[in-house]
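Our collaborator T.R. sent over the components below with a one-line note: 'Predict the complex.' Nothing else. No constraints on interfaces, no templates requested, no preferences about which chain binds where. So this is a plain run: every listed entity goes in together, and whatever single assembly comes back becomes the starting point for the next discussion.
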Amino acid sequence: MADEVTLLDFWLSPFGMRVKIALAEKEVKYEYSEQNLMNRKSDLLLKMNPVYKKIPVLVHHGKPVCESLIILQYIDAVWKGKAPLLPSDPYERAQSMFWADFIDRKVHDISKKLWTTKGEELEAAKKDFFECLELLERELGEKPYFGGEALGYVDIALLPFSCGFYTYETIGDFSIEARFPKIRAWVDRCLKKESVAKSLAEPEKVHEFILETRKGLGFD
Amino acid sequence: MASDQVTLLDLWASPFGMRVRLALAEKGVKYEYSEQDLVNKGALLLQMNPVHKKIPVLVHNGKPVCESLIIVQYIDEVWKDKAPFLPSDPYQRAQSRFWADFVDKKIYDFGRKIWTEKGEDQEAAKKGFIDSLKLLEGELGDKPYFGGETIGYVDIALVPFYTWFYAYETIGNFSIEAECPKLIGYCMRCLKKETVSKSLEDPKKVYDFVVMLRKKFGIE
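Returned assembly:
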């Protein structure tokens, strides 16, 4: 099927990385269009996402789908012959959606505070972050992936945030491996998959970018 | 199915809870309604939603589903023989999910600020709220409902907020109908349906509830 698929994205965005992993899992060929969010937003982005003007946007046969988790569900429904992302059972599906929603509500905002705050605020953010990871580690349990035997929706929702782990650990002076060994092992297990390894940004590049941004914000 | 045991943990004034009541009414599902005390949270609520400790929670045969839009999708999948909420086409489904998510991100947040903020912050919230309703009016177009000829997912996500409009207008000192007559016309159309009128609360009672909350939180 000569599908016309374009992904409007920004290399650093964890939300964009989710879509890259999903497209790789489904072996969908697509055109990647880097949107430089530091400059003026492109006409294409403004046309494809007029409501929020944000990435990622998946453009399929000229029609846009916005919001990363909605894009994941769309990809799962359209390319359904391979690598199902969501379970087929309605209850299990609701549980997967719950945890992906938890990651959206909590992990993104809290992890941002790990590098944009200091002192007491940073300590409070660390505490919140540890609580999140504790809940997620418990949800993972003894399974190799949140999706069970194979990578699934929740894995894809969470994995991109692992690119920042090295940065959070360095700035916050803690070790994820020491506190949450199952999460660390899960990240390493996922990174062995090509779909994940080629979709995630390199932690060193993320670290460099964040340090530059912190300088701009007046840190260090 | 006669053997189904369905309980809804809810708070009468919650628009999120009303979404679930409306979804269950549309599907003709019999259920037990359980009003929750959110100040002194009961053991059942804490057991069924340990992560967020919030309502609504749908308990189906002893197993909990949390987060209103996730619950509505679950209801649509389990009781699939009647009144489908989401379109069958993946692209249309993605669009429905986008707009329901928009209601969560914009209508709820701006609405909340109208009754919790004052001065410039309240004015900004009023503007954001009206701008968001106008975008929804554009999406509705000439259709009777967002779902087309019948009530669908976006209608279920949005129409319960109508019960809070009177409170927003009175506290914010503005008229939503003057700015968005088409949307108010749409809400009136929805209210003619028995499933909607019996699932939504009286706006005057909701207003009294909001006044009580403002006193409690020390907002005048």
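Summary for T.R.: The CA atoms of residues 89 and 131 of chain B lie 29 Å apart.
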